[in-house]
Every structure is written in structure tokens, then in C-alpha cells.
Specification:
heterodimer; A: mainly alpha; B: alpha+beta; twelve-stranded mixed β-sheet; 20 helices; 20 strands; globular
Chain lengths: ~300, ~600
Amino acid sequence: MWAVATLVFFMLRAVPGDPMLAMVFDTGDPAAADEMRRDFGLDQPVYVQYVKYFLQVMQGNLGTSIYGSRVPVSRIVAEAFPRTMSLAVLSFLLATLIAVPAGLISALKKHTPIDHGVTLVAFIGLSMPDFWLAILLIIVFAAQLNWLPAVGYVPLAQGFWPWFSHLILPTIAIGTPFAAIIARMIRSSMLEVLKSDFMRVSRSKGLLEKRLLLVHAFPNALIPVVTVMGIALALLMAGTVVVENVFAIKGLGRVLIQGILNRDYPVVQGAILVVSAIFVFSNLLVDALYTVIDPRIRYD
Amino acid sequence: MIRKKQDRHGIVRESIEGDLAQANDFDRRDPLFGLSHQDLCGPQLERRTVLRLLAAAGTLSASHLVPGMGIRSAAAAKMGGHLRCAWAGTAEIVTLDPARMNQVLQFQITSNILSGLTHIDANLVAQGDLAKDWTVSPDGKEWIFNLREGVKFHNGDAFTADDVLFTYQRSSDPKKSIHSRVISNVADVIKLDAHKVKIVLKAPQASFLVKTLERSSGRAMTIVSRGALESLGKSQYGLTPVGTGPFRITFHELGQGVVLERNEDYYDPARPKLDKVTITPITDPEPLAAAIEAGDVQLIGGNTPASELVDRFETNSDLVVNSVSDPGFQAVWMNPWRQPFEVTDFNKPVDQLMKQNGFKVRLALAKALDRERFIKRALFGRGFPAYGSINPAMGFFFDKDLGENSPQRYEPEVAKKLLAEAGYPDGKDFPKLRLLHNPANRRRAQVVAGILKRNLNIEIELDTKDGPVVLQDYLQMNFDLALLGSGGDFDPDDAIVDWMQTESKFNGLKRDKDKMAFGYFSDKRADELIDQQRLATDPAKRKALVQEANAITSAKVACAFLYHPMSILVYHKTVDYPAVSRIPGLVELDRVTIS
């Protein structure tokens, strides 16, 4: 995380575009820009800025936004986090609900019309750009049928249905491609396991096919799948910016992009730090899950 | 000038040109003839004065004269309701603190929350807002404002002269406000009593009421609450500012939206009509369209929606597309410090400038710009050809004949000839130029490049950069050609003072001053005229000065003026948006009703 934060810090300052100049362009007052630059310590050498930033972060202070209202970065991130979390968890659940049965059926019915059908649907799911699917969903379900809201987000505190109804379309838009990826992963992993020696032995022992698949094959096929799902969850927490934009939901991804566009250094640094923490912890979670799925794996 | 479901190409333009045709020149038949500065003292201009100003601006219509129409019909409308709005083209409303705001879409919102001493009306004439009335000294330097009594901020604090002083002190400090330069002509603000202030100017300023004291675009003197600033802190005040306007903010989360609720204590008990307004920022065009088509939102504010969407909205019988001329201009800027359009001294007469190859190339490019074609291709017909920085929304100051008289008028054959004389016959050996623009202007840049290729056979490479980089390059004069311009120009000062003087704030602000004596343009005569019009309190005299300066900048090709945009409001037919609230560029919701 320190390496990521350092890299982002210096890369941001190498990107052209003066945030202060952009803010005062309308007024054309260089004095105001200079004052703001001093105010935020941006007139100091980069290494001094870096040391100050590092000490600040060590104290749990992500700084304040330099663009607009100067809102604390922690507040911006804290406001965005529940939106991203809601979206990511629902999308992840949807992806899993579609992918597990689809992957299993596809593996069991290998080279049958069912397998081809599932494969075709998976490829369509994979090939569809999420923003395109999002817009299509809005046109059909919001504009034409008027069943669901087109844009926006309502906090869960305001009721389950208002919250859920605003998330259905973005969840489908985000979850579908991930479902396709995971389904393909489960299929190939299952096919690998089904060919293995222990499966032949188990089958020759006369185990029931259902037990064979669900108790012996599936857990063994899960190791690579869980790895992919862990990465998918981390990606969902920060990589849904396009869909967030389409549905006007300000999650972490949108915070990040907006920060970059505004050259709002503290916001970008803070958001990247949170995103990298999510990646680290989701990988840690995946590693811990390995031990549950396969008791042979132990971390001494 | 409301247009509902009319043919945008024909009717709107014909009508506006018709309006402009009625404006008179300065003579005894001129409606403004004989108006003195006393006539222009506020708060409410006399009916006779208003009618003369309107007639001069060419904006009188039957609705202003027939009892029961216009303002009166709006006042009779019903109260209550919740209006849901989308704010187009933005991901978040980064600030609503007048000291920090730098976008039109921000002061569109604050104009409904905060107040100023004055506020412009639909004809861009200043009317009293928190100022009940005012007088001006004969030398035009001392303004005495009587403030409304009994006005309360949204937090319950009483509004007094101290708030005007506090606002001035805050805004004049560049550490606290980015708009300190706007009030640099103010020498002092003196409290005469609890509800009377005197503002002393360093020099008379014709635009004082419309530019400096205006509550929306002015910003420097948009009244802020000292108590709220101290209790909320700067950050929170930027999100939920406290003012004395018709609505108060009850919620603002960055990126998620803003909620406004009716201010029960507003000084005009008849306003606002609505109980609640929700504003959701929406960046992408298609979700924006779906949101209004599905009825999720009933009005689109913020940036003007993409032109191709407006076509679609016009065919939807549930929606109203309300178009008026927008106060602004867009241009193609040519760097005079670079070949092939190098001109390092614009002070020479035009006939001498015409001997320079650099000037010939500048003029050739300006003349080759087929503005009608550009507007059709890039704006889907929604815009007006520009030949100067003064826009049609300014009505009275707009020069309707400039398109015919300016050397920049479209003449492709003459443009080709000029280019050939400059050493580039049929575009041969013409250097490949880069056109700097931001991503939002890409389509427009493509059309400009296409038109120049078609008419002059020259290659223009698109140079798309992020907004902050475009601004940095522009202010450093680090470009060949740049496509950008101005918005929210309610007064001529917003155009010619801000853009066309040697010391204008956009004129190469960050250039290398050792190598470049000025930015993109400098002309002594234009500078003088612009300075004179700033001081002219006689509207007719000011108009003449403004138009002469505007004509010089056009003739000497300060830039290739391209178009004046249209201000387009889209709303559901259940929304009644009265004509009196249709201030170009703003979204005034205090008189809006919903059925």
C-alpha cells in the first residue's frame, strides 16, 4: 500500500494540468491561485509535500479536497463506500448465483447443446460492454416499461425497496460479465477435476453421482475459482466507474475518476489508498478461504 | 421568447432576428433617447423606462403588454409540489460557496438559494433583490442602497448592512475568494445604518449593477451569512450554504445530489411556489434522456443537453423544449506568436495589417469558417453565427449587422485568395496545425477541421486534452489553434473586458511575458473604447462604444468568432416555467409550478 501510495503521489504530480489554474480560470486572478497553492502547500518542493503527506497518512488523515468545497477526503470516501459496497455485493451475489449452476451444468453436459448454449450466453455476457448493457437496461426497464428508476441511489436507511430498486439495473449491468467469467472458470476447473484419478477411484467405488460432484469434485474445483472471485470482488469495489457514471451513483470509482479530472491530488491519493487496501484485504480473504475449502492448505 | 415545439431551424431564428430588427439606433426615435442616470436608479425602474429599455432591446411582445399574461399569469399559479431535476453534464456539484464557484451550473443552483443586492431579469436588466432601492451620485462613483428590512437568513439570523460589509470583506480577500478581482473597482463599502450601505467605486462602472452586484453570476457580492459560515465551517458551507433566497438547502452529498426546500420566510410571500426541489447530477447523455423520458426527473438544468438529445426531446409530446439565446460566445483562437498566423502588432490599421502574411492567414481562416454549416453539423442547428463577443442575449448591445459588415463574414473564395497571397495556394505547403480542445468539444473541433479542409484544403489535427490541461496551455499561449469561449456573459464587460483587452484576464495570463508582449490580441484603440464603455453611464453612448470595440476585434481578427450558443431548458409538460423566470443561462425555480 505504501508503494502504491508513493507511486500515485509522484505520478499525479507528473501529470500536466494545474488544479489551481483550472479553479481560477473563470476569474483570471493569479493572486487567488497563488494563495490557494500556498494554502495547500503545493508551492513547496515535491519531496517536502511527500513527507508531509506520508506523516499525515500515518496519523490516519487523508487530507482535504483541494477542488471546490475542500471537503475532507475521508468524508468523500466514507460517503462513496456504502454505495460501492451495495453495488459490489449485489453484483457479486448475482454473478455467483448465475455462474455456479451455469458452470456446473456446462461441465457436466460437456459438448452437448446445453453446454454450447451456456457457452454462447457466457460469451455474449463477456463481450457486452457494461456501459452498453447499462444503457440498454435503462431504455427498456426505465424509459419504456417504467418499472424501475433510471438513475440515482437511495441509502438503505430510507427503506429496502427504494434502495434495492435503484440497484437492480446497475447490478445486472455489472454482474452479468462477471457471471460469464466465473461460469467459464468453474466449467474449466470442473472439467479438470472430473478427469483426475481420485474422481475415477471415487466413481469406481460406486459413489452416487450427485455426491461425487457436489462433495468431491466441486470443492476441489473451487480453488482457482475462488482466486478469480476474490479478484472480481476487489475489481467490483473500484472498477465500476463506467456503470456508476451511467446510473449517476457516486461510488469509489467515480470519486477516483472525478479526482483525476479535477487534478484533486488528495482525493485521488486517498481513494487509491482505500482501493489498494480493498485489494490487499480481499486477497487475504481469498487466502484464508483456501484453508476452509482445502484443509490440506495451512499457513504456518 | 419561449419556444414550445417549434421548428428550431426556421421559427426561432427568424423570430429572434425579427426582434433584433426592431432595435433602434441612437436618434430621437430611439426609445432610449434622453434617459438619464437618475432614470436608471433602482429598485424598480419606472414602467416607462422599462418599456423603453425593452423596446430598445427588441424584446417587447404582446405578452408584456396584455394584462393577465406573462408575470401575472405566473403569480396566479398554484403552490406546492416536488420538482425533480437532473443537472446535466456534471458528476457532482463541487461547491455552492460563492467565493469558490467557477461554473455556470453551480450558480444556476445558488441563484435559488442565495441573494444579492440585485438580480437580472429575463431581459438581463438589473432589478432590486436585497436592495429595496438605490441612488447613484452624479459622478457615478457613490451608490447608496436601501436594503430590505425583515429579511432573514435560512438559519434565522436577520439580514443587515453588516452582512453586506462582511461579504465584501470576505470576497475582496484573495485568500478567501477567487472573485476578488471582480470587486477590485470597489474602494469602500460603508454602513450608513442597519439597512443602508454606501458603496464607493474607484471609477464609474456601467456594469456595476449587472456584473458586480448580481446574485448569480456576480458571486463576489452574493450575500453570505457570517453566522452560518462560522457555525458550519468553510467545507460544510460550500455544500449547504445559508442565504436569504427562495429555497434553503436541506441535503447535499457530493455526486448524489442536492435537495432544496421552500424558504417559508422569503421576503416575497408569493414565492417560491414549489415545496421541494431535488437536483441529481447526471453525466451521460443517454441516462439523462431516459431519466426525463421515464419521468424520474421533470426538468433538466446544468449544462445544455447534447444537441442530438434535444432533437429527440422535441419529438416527445410529454416534453417542452424551451430555447433562448445563451449569453456567451465560442471562437477559434489563433496564436499570433506562431507561424503561419504571426502578428505581433495589431495596432496598425487594417489595410496595413492586410499586407502581412500572418494576418492574411488569420483572416482567411476566419472567412473560411462556414458558421451556418458548423451550427447545422456540430450543434444540430442550435446556435447563432458569431462575428464578435457581444451575444444576442444582450439584445440592446448586440450588433445585428456585424455579420454583414465584419471582414470575418463567410466568403470562401476570398479566403482561398488570401491564403494564396500568403504563400499557400490551395493550401499547398500549409503547415499542419493542431486544434486544442477539451473532450466535450471534440465533435465541434472535428467539424471545424472539416470545414477548413473543405474550404481551404488545409489539414488540422485534433489535439484533445483534459480540461485543466487545455486551460493551462491556453493561458500559457501554448497552442496553434484553440477552441473555447465564454459563458454567463450577461453584460458587455463579461465579453469585451474579460476577453478583448490587452490586460484581459484570459489574454495569455500565464504566457512568457519576456517573449510575448500580449497573449492572443492587443489593440490600443479597442482598449480605449472598452475602458470608456466601462465608465459610460449613458446606455446609448455605452452601446456605441461597445459596438465599435466589438467591430474592431472582429475586423482585426482577435480570434475567428464561431457561434453564440443557445440556452435550452427541457422540462415535462406538467411543469409551468413562466416567461419571467426564463433568464438565459439560469434556472430560476422560484416561480415555477408543477401540476
